[in-house]
Write a structure and sequence with these properties.
CATH topology of chain B: Immunoglobulin-like
CATH class of chain B: Mainly Beta
Number of strands of chain A: 2
Number of domains of chain B: 1
Structural class of chain A: mainly alpha
Strand content of chain A: under 5%
Order of helices and strands of chain B: HEEHHH
Shape of chain A: globular
CATH topology of the largest domain in chain A: Cytochrome Bc1 Complex, Chain D, domain 2
CATH superfamily of the largest domain in chain A: Cytochrome c-like domain
Strand content of chain B: under 5%
Order of helices and strands of chain A: HHHHHHHHHHEEHHH
Oligomer: heterodimer
Number of helices of chain B: 4
CATH architecture of the largest domain in chain A: Orthogonal Bundle
Chain lengths: 313, 88
């Protein structure tokens, strides 16, 4: 390419950039861009906002010291703050958000699953600083550091609370009940160890066919039916039967005897032995991203001295 | 109308609902093919009347369900149901 040709090409590019800028300014000045928050973002806008946000939070929250989040009094403190500061927009297990949280776009996500997506430092950072262009405010300095860690501690707990547990804790808090038997921190492993040791997904796949689960449920890779809810991406599902947290122990208990939880459920008791139900769950958990289960396993378990969450990435 | 109400009430934060913006939640069950679903919440036969009851007062139907009472009015529930029944 000779010099004049390069010159022409560069001029053309410069003219195009200027035209685009002018066009953009005119578009904004015309007022035709819809900034109403009760209409969803355009797909590309949403993608741009979210892609940048995740990376920025990861980057800015690195190397933070994480205190012990398995402290019952900290979790309890966190619940109180959660109800006042978070629930109005994000809701809680079985608890609705308020109008203030509904007229926002993007919609404030349900925080029952927040600790699946973000680690401790990231949650602390978001609570402290907020997120531009999302409606999420920063809570520092009005909430102290302890307050903000309390909310993080509670977010670890809430992911394992059923709507009934949540109601129990909020009622206790309302009435000022001091009861150490309340489930402020989790003290069992929710069947994760057993699932790892004994759950056999291949056998589960066969059992699901033998028991005829696909007569009523769509199961990834096995069949489609619409009597009950689809079990696709089951690893990502937060609740089983609408009211049990989807962890191995609950899912097994549901399959072996659904009527013990809901006497009127349409799901029949097929007399599945627990060991076979565990295999079925092992298979169902192969559908969808395993991110949620990994995070839950971290939030459960016997009390540990220090959070095992990754602090440095 | 139903589609906009589903968006406005944020149903998609918990449910996957084809055709609704940002509706890719995995907290509750996916609602694809809802028009052919036989039961609602595992408890009610999927009739329009039952669906209206469930959408407007889930806690009355199944105390302890994770689905919250969002204060959806009956006319709004009707529009929401109309949309859900288009999903096959």
């Amino acid at each position: 390419m000779n010099r004049p040709a390069i010159k022409v090409a560069l001029t053309a590019i410069a003219v195009m950039i200027v035209l685009q800028l002018v066009g953009g300014v005119l578009f904004l000045a015309s007022g035709s861009y819809n900034i109403a928050a009760d209409e969803p973002h355009l797909k590309p806008t949403r993608w741009l906002l979210q892609a940048g946000r995740t990376r920025a939070v990861e980057f800015r929250s690195r190397g933070m010291y994480v205190p012990n989040l398995r402290d019952p009094s900290l979790v309890k403190h966190g619940l109180r703050l959660y109800r006042k500061n978070c629930q109005p927009c994000h809701g809680g297990p079985g608890a609705a958000n308020e109008q203030i949280g509904r007229g926002i776009d993007p919609k404030p996500p349900p925080l029952v699953i927040a600790s699946n997506k973000w680690n401790d430092s990231e949650l602390f950072w978001i609570i402290s600083h907020g997120l531009k262009l999302s409606g999420m405010p920063g809570f520092a300095p009005r909430l102290s550091e302890t307050d903000r860690w309390g909310i993080v501690a509670f977010l670890h707990r809430v992911v394992l609370l059923s709507p009934t547990d949540y109601k129990q804790l909020t009622t206790a808090e309302d009435l000022g009940v001091e009861d150490s038997s309340l489930p402020w921190i989790s003290s069992n492993d929710y069947g994760f160890a057993q699932l790892k040791a004994q759950g056999n997904a291949n056998r589960g796949r066969e059992l699901i066919q033998t028991y005829g689960c696909t007569t009523c449920h769509t199961v990834a890779g096995l069949g489609a039916a619409a009597v009950g809810p689809p079990l696709t991406r089951f690893a990502e599902r937060q609740y089983v039967a609408g009211s049990l947290v989807n962890v191995p122990s609950n899912a097994v208990a549901w399959i072996t005897n659904p009527q013990q939880f809901k006497p009127k459920t349409a799901m029949p008791n097929l007399n599945v032995p627990p060991a076979e139900a565990l295999d079925m769950i092992a298979y169902l958990y192969t559908s969808g991203s395993s991110e949620r289960l990994t995070a839950l396993e971290r939030s459960s378990g016997i009390p540990k001295a220090k959070s095992t969450a990754k602090v440095n990435k | 109308m139903g589609e906009h109400l589903i968006y406005a009430y944020g149903c998609g934060s918990c449910h996957l609902i084809p055709g609704v913006a940002e509706a890719n939640g995995s907290v509750g069950p996916p609602l694809q093919g809802f028009g052919s679903r036989i039961y609602i919440a595992g408890l009610l036969v999927n009739t329009p009347e039952n669906l209206l009851h469930w959408i407007s007062k889930p806690q009355e139907v199944d105390p302890g369900t994770a689905m919250p009472d969002l204060g959806v009015t009956e006319p709004q529930a009707r529009d929401i149901a109309a949309y859900l029944y288009t999903l096959q």
